[in-house]
Amino acid sequence: MKNRTAIVGLGITEMGRVYRSASDLACEAVFLALKDAGLNKSELDGLLINAGLTNSVGLQLHTKLGMQELNLLTFIQGYGSSAGQMIQYASMAIANGMADYVACVFADNP
Hints:
The protein is of the alpha/beta class and 110 residues long. It has helices spanning 22-37, 61-64, 82-95; strands at residues 46-50, 72-75, 102-106. It has a single domain (22-106), classed as Peroxisomal Thiolase, Chain A, domain 1 (3-Layer(aba) Sandwich), CATH 3.40.47. It is globular, with a radius of gyration of 13 Å.
């Protein structure tokens, strides 16, 4: 995988006590990451989701984002290791031709 994959965009929403749903925060984070990467929504063909302990964001996030044609859609729950698992999974998927651009999303609003 060396030199075959990279993190190209980052989207971080406001943190703290916010009165928005975790799904809304997840959508905002994805769109911020796409903007940061200089990508169009149509170029994103993979979505990996983690919703923390509340599981308030699920696989249906792709429909809320308006992304119907994904090559990769997975929910990952590794508790403390979820972020690392998502990065590894995305990297392996890209390196092996399963997807070109994968968003790794964590969203929670306890």
